[in-house]
Amino acid sequence: MTAGSTQGEMAEGFPLAGRAAAFEQLLEILRTVRKGKVGTVVLSGPSGSGKTALLELFLDHCRTAARGVRVLSAMGDDWEAQFALAGYSQLMRTLPLRTAKDYDGGPAVAPGPVASLTPDQVINYASTFSTHLEGLQTHGSVVVAVDDVHKLDEESLRVLTFVMRRLHDKRVLFLLTLNPGDASRVPAGVLDFLTGHQVVRIPLEPLTPQQVQDVARGLFGLDLSATAAHGLVTHTGGIAQSIVELLRELPPETWQSWFPSLPPTSRVRARVRSVLAAASPALVTAAEAAAVLGPGAGLAEVARVGGLESVMPALDEGHRAGLLGLSVDQSRSAVAFLEPGTAEAVYEQIVPSRRIALHRKAAEVVQSEGEQLGHRVAATPAADETLAAELEEFARRQATVGAWQDASTALFSASRLSPDIRARNLRLLKAVDALVGSGNVAQAQAWAGAVDALPPSPLRSSVLGYLSTVSGQNDSAQSQLEMAWRTSNPQHEPAAAAQVAQRFVLHGVASWNGPIITGWAERAMALTEPGTPAHIESEAIYGLGLYAQGRIADAEASYQRASAQAAENAQKQRVQMGAGWLALRLDNAESALVNFESAAPTEYRGGSLRISLWAEAWLARTHLVLGNWDAAAATISRASVRLETSRMPLIRPLLYWTAAELWSMRGDWDRARYYVSQAAVQPGTYRAMQVPASLARARFHEARADYESALAALQPLPELDPWTDQRVSFWPWQDTYVNALVMTDKLDAAETFLTAFEGVHREREVPSDLARVAWARGRLLAAQGDPDTAREYFEAALGHLRGLNRPYLRARISFAFGQSMRRAGKRRLASSVLRAARDLYDTLGATTYVERCDRELKATGLDIGNLPDPADPVLSSVGSHHQQLTAQEQAVAELVAAGATNKEAARALFLAEKTVQYHLTRLYRKMGIRSRSELAAAFRAKD
Question: What phi and psi, each to the nearest 5 degrees, are found at residue 575?
Fold first, then answer.
C-alpha cells in the first residue's frame, strides 16, 4: 500500500475519514525513524474515537507495504493488568522465531507473571528487551505498538518506559494509544514521560459533520444531508464508533428527513442493561432520575426525584462502572452520563408507569416553568385541555420576548394534548409558525405536508407563506401571503392580521422593496400594541424600508427609536441586526460590527436562528470590509454549519458571496469555486438571493482576470437591482460592473451606465459610494485616453476613504489606479501606487492580487528586483543575436508561456489584444522562437 493509495482510501471509509492527517503524520514519523531516529508517538482520544482502528491500519501498512519493518504488538486489558509483565510477555511473544539464537540477547519470552519486580529486575527485563530491539533493527526498522496503554500492567509499563527513555539513534518507533479519561490509571512517572516533550501526541478529534458525510457515503452509500450529519455529531459527540454503529443499525430512510432525536446503539443498550443488572438499587434509581431530568440535572434534583438521601455513593459506583458521574464547572455541578446515548438507553428501560411517576416528581422539583411544563407533558399520555391551555399561554409569553423555539415546543405539546380537533389543528399551525420564527426551517419543512393538508384558513396561508419566504420561494410566498391577507379580518382579529402584515415585511426585505417594507410595517404596527412580536419585528425592519427609498435620516431616526424601546431580551436581536445592516451601508462599519456581534448569539437569551444567521452573514461581510479576513473566514466556517443544518436558502447566497470573494482573493480556487456553486440560485428567487449570487460569480471571475465571465454574471443587475431617485440599491456592485465593461472594451456602455448613475439624486453622500463612483470614472477615463483627468478621479477616490478603515476597498482602487497609469506610460506613478496596493493586499493575505501587483510592477520596468536577468536562459536561448526583453514583453511572455490566450493576457495586463500580439511578435524575434509552445518550453527550461 503506497501513501497515494492510502490517501484514496481515506476519502472513502472509516477509520480514515477524518483521520487522514493523523495517518499521514504516522507515515512521516516512520520515514524519519527509518533514517535512524527513535520515535515515540501517543494516539490519544476517548473510547470509540478510532484509535485502535487507525493503529491496526498503520500496523497493517507496516507489515504489508513497508519493506524491512518488524512489528511487535501488545494490547492492554483490565483483567491481565493484575499480572506483572503480562504486557511484556505479549511483546516478547511477537518476536520472530529463533530470536535468542540470532541475537544472543537473553530469553525470547518473558517469565511468567510474578507478584512484583525490584528495580534491578526492571532493569534486567528492559535490558533484554533493548537487546532484542537492537538486534531486530540491524535488519530494518521496528515498530513497537501498545493498544490501550492505560490498561497495561504497571511492571510492563515501567520496563517499556525505561527502554523508551534510553534508546537513541535506533530505527525504532514506539506507538501507543491512550484514553485521556483513563490517564489516571497510568503511574505518575510513566504519565510524565508520555506527556513530555520527547513524545509526539496525536489527538483524534471528534468527527465533523463533513467527515460524517464522508463516512456515510464511503461505508454505507448514504448521502446524508448536513442536518442529519449535524444531528449525528450532536447525538454522539462526534465519536466515530457510535456514528458508524448508528449508520449501520438504523434503516436508510431515517436519514432522509428531519428527526428530533436518535436512539442509542445496540452496543450501548446492551452495556447499560449489563451495568444496571449488576448495579445497586441506589445506582439504578440515580440513573433513572438523571435520565428523566435530562442534561444538567443537579445533585439535589436527582436526589429528590429518586428519593435518595445521598447521591454520592451511587455516583461513585456509577463512575467505577463507567455509567455516570459528576460534572463540575464554575457555574454548577451536574450528574452526567459518561458515554453518548447512555441517557437514552437508561430512559428506554424504565417501565411506563414508573417513567410517568418520575416525570411528575420532576415537575415538582425543577425551577424553570418551561421544564415544569415539559415534565407534566411527559407524564400525561392522554388528552388534557387544561394543560394544553397552560402550554398555549406559556407559548404566547415566550413569543412576546422572542423565544420562538420554546414557544414552538410548548405549542406542539399543546396540540397533542388537545381533545378538540379544531383546537389541535390551530395549535399545530401556531407551532409550525413559531418553528419558522425560530429559524428551524428543516423541522418546519418536515411539517409542511401536514400544514398543507389542513383546512384553508388565513393562518394556514400565513404559515405557508412564511415558510416559503425563508425557503427563498418568492412566487409561492407572494401568493400565499396575498391569500392570507384577503381572508383575514383586521377589524375583528387585528393580531392575526398584523402577523400576516409582518410576514409581508419580511417578504419585502427579501425583495429589497422599500414601499412594501414600510407599507406593511406601518399596517402591522397600527394593528398591534408596542411590545408585541409583530410590532417589534416590523419596527426592526422598518428602517431598512426607509433607507431603500433613499430616506437616510428617517431610517437612522427609526433605529434610534427602536433601540431605545427594545427590551433586553431576544427581541432586541432583531433591532440590532437591522441597525447593523443600515450602519454597514452608511460606512459605520465599526458600529455594524458591534450590532452584528450582539445579534449573532442565541444561546443565552433565546432568539431566532434565522436572525442569528442573517447577523453572522453580515458579520462576515463586515470583517471583510474592515480587513479582518481571518475573522471573516472563522465566521463563515461557524455560520455555514448552522446554515446548512437549518436549511435556510434565503441566507445562503449572502454568506457564500463573502466566502467566494475571500477565497478567490486568497488564491484557494477549489474552495472559492465551491462557494460560488453554493451561492448559486434559481431564476425567480428573491432579489436578496440573486444579487449576492451574481456578485459571488463576478468577484471569482474578476480575481482570475476573466472579465467577460465577470460581466456576464453582472449583466442582469442594472435591471434587477436599479438605483434611482426613489430606490437605493443596497449591494455595492456598480463600480465592479463599470470595471468589467471597461476591461472588455465596452466603453460606450460604461459611459452610459456611469453617467446615469452619477446623476441619481442622493439625500446624503456616503464616502465609500463616492469612492466607488470616482474610481469607476477614473478607470473609464484612462481607457478613453485621458490619464491626467483619470488620475484626479483616482486620487479623489482614495481621498474619500481618508479617515475610514477600508483596506480592501483602498487596495482595489490603488490597483486599478496603478494599472491604468502603467498602461498610460506613467511608470513612476504606477510603480508607487501599485506598491501601496501590493502592501495592502499582502496584509490581507490576498495572494491573488499580490501576484497581479508583482506582474504589473514588473511591467513598469522600474523595480530593479523584478527586471529580467541578462543571464536568464529564456533571454539567451538563441545565442549572440538575442536582445533583452522590455518589461511589458517579459510580462506578456510569462502569461502566454503559462497558457494564457492573447485575450486573457490583454485582460490581465489591461492592454489591447493587438498590443499583446505586437509584443509577442517582437519577443519571438528577440528569442529566436516561432510559437507559443517554444515559448512555454523556454520558460520550463528556465524553471
Answer: -65, -45
On whether the CB atoms of residues 669 and 705 are closer than 8 A, the answer is no
Residue 795, pLDDT above cutoff 70: yes
User: Helix 734-743 to helix 707-714 angle, to the nearest 10 degrees?
Assistant: 140
Partners of 43 in the β-ladder: 177, 202
Q: How many Cα neighbours within 13 Å face the side chain of 529?
A: 2
Cell of 659: 466566502
- Residue 785's nearest CA partner among 820, 815, 751 is 820
pLDDT digits (tens, 9 = 90+) for 214-263: 888 888 888 888 778 888 888 888 888 889 999 999 988 888 766 667 88
C-beta of residue 376 within 8 angstroms of C-beta of residue 359: yes
What region does 704 belong to: left with phi over 0, alpha with psi -120 to 50, or beta?
alpha
Q: At residue 337, what are phi and psi to the nearest 5 degrees?
A: -80, 145
Q: What is the pLDDT of residues 190-216, one digit of tens each?
A: 888 888 878 899 998 888 888 888 888
Task: Fill in the DSSP letter of residue 606.
Answer: -
Q: Nearest CA to 768 among 816, 805, 727? A: 805
Backbone Cα Rg of the chain: 34
Residue 18 has pLDDT above 90, yes or no: no
Cα–Cα distance, 410 to 396 (Å, whole number): 10
The C-alpha atoms of residue 68 and residue 124 are separated, in whole angstroms, by 28
d(CA 579, CA 568) in angstroms, rounded, equals: 15
Q: What secondary structure letter does DSSP report for 622?
A: H
Residue 348 has pLDDT above 90, yes or no: yes
Query: SS3 for 454?
Result: coil
Q: Can you give the pLDDT at residue 927?
A: 78
Q: Which three cell numbers stand for residue 427?
A: 395549535
- Percent of the chain at pLDDT exceeding 90: 54
Q: State mean pLDDT over 747-776.
A: 95
pLDDT category, 833, cuts 50, 70, 90? very high
How many other C-beta atoms can be found within 10 angstroms of the C-beta atom of residue 255?
Answer: 21
Band the pLDDT of 791: cuts 50, 70, 90.
very high
Please write down the long-range contacts of 776-780, taking CB distance under 8 Å and 24 or more positions apart.
776/734, 776/735, 776/738, 776/739, 778/816, 778/817, 778/820, 779/738, 779/739, 779/742, 779/816, 779/820, 780/738, 780/742, 780/747, 780/750, 780/751, 780/754
CA atoms within 13 A on the CB side of 513: 16
The 3-state DSSP class for residue 768 equals helix
Cα 28 to Cα 12, 23, 31, 35: the distances in Å are 22, 9, 5, 11
What are the tens digits of pLDDT across the range 412-446? 999 999 999 999 999 999 999 999 988 888 888 88
